[in-house]
Write a structure and sequence with these properties.
alpha/beta, disordered N terminus, disordered C terminus
Length: 294
């Protein structure tokens, strides 16, 4: 048996009206502690969403856009690298409410699920741009692995957060953030459903613009629905997200930006334990190089 989850209903029209903080595109609200970007990689386009985080997991989507990928000219993987390089090189240059400071993101999580090699190649060369991969219940049976929350850190699992963890991929020589896509989609969905967002902590709003400008992203944010069902094989209730539209790329970018925020200390409640930042860079590769010289 399964039931569509209706406890946090969303509509595209309702999302388009969530501009409660009345800030223009690219303006960072006062009190912002971090800015995170989630980036979804496709064959022809990169979709990204930037969120400025204030205390209490109060998020303002200050910017979002699509970056063109040109596989016909360069080939798919080189074209992805070139698009990432172009996006990073141009910079974002956001401003505060008071000063034109040219602010850049604190952290960018780039989805590597479709084409890992170009994402790994790029992220190895750029600080604070990290490879990530989402795992969800819908993927069970389609791939050899699904999301499993580690119980503790190990030599390879360097950071463990709330339904995300960072694993050192030895063969690829990169740190990869594994993300529970179902959990973080639900988390983002609930932030978008908070009523009176201009007055309520723990909400997410869009930058101020005519509603018609937000039509594409509002459709992406409502392109999937949450299903709760009993899994007979495992004997447990599970939650999964299923597509109702193929255009879901901004939604994928949104949940990655939310999970990235959590990795920096974004929390709904002040009483939640904030993970002490653990070292991301290890000396493992250095030891391997030294070992080969002997």
């Amino acid at each position: 048996d399964s039931d569509e989850d209706e406890d946090t209903p969303l509509s595209a029209a309702g999302i388009r009206r969530r501009t409660g903080r009345r800030l223009a595109k690219g303006v960072v609200p006062d009190g912002t502690e971090h800015i995170t970007i989630g980036l979804d990689v496709g064959k022809f386009l990169l979709h990204w969403v930037a969120i400025a985080w204030q205390p209490g997991a109060t998020g303002s989507i200050i910017d979002y856009a699509k970056e063109e990928v040109d596989p016909n000219r360069y080939g798919v993987e080189p074209a992805i690298v070139k698009a990432l390089e172009r996006l990073h090189g141009e910079g974002f240059g956001w401003v505060t409410e008071k000063e034109p400071l040219g602010i850049e993101p604190s952290l960018v999580w780039v989805d590597s699920g479709w084409k890992p090699r170009p994402v790994y190649e790029f992220c190895k060369t750029v600080e604070n741009w990290c490879a990530s991969k989402g795992f969800g219940e819908t993927q069970r049976g389609k791939s050899a692995t699904s999301y499993q929350q580690p119980k503790k850190r190990t030599h390879d699992i360097r950071r463990v957060g709330d339904q995300w963890y960072m694993r050192k991929m030895r063969a690829e020589r990169i740190d990869l953030y594994h993300v529970n896509a179902d959990y973080w989609k639900s988390w983002a969905h609930e932030r978008l459903a908070v009523e009176n967002p201009e007055e309520t902590a723990g909400s997410i709003v869009l930058f101020d613009a005519p509603e018609r400008d937000h039509i594409p992203i509002s459709k992406h944010f409502t392109s999937e629905r949450r299903i709760t069902e009993f899994n007979k094989e495992r004997g447990v209730m599970i939650t999964r997200w299923v597509k109702v539209s193929k255009a879901n790329h901004f939604f994928d970018a949104l949940y990655l930006a939310c999970a990235a925020g959590h990795s920096l200390g974004v929390r709904l409640l002040e009483t939640e334990k904030v993970e002490r930042k653990q070292p991301v860079v290890s000396d493992w590769f250095k030891k391997q190089r030294e070992g080969r010289r002997r």
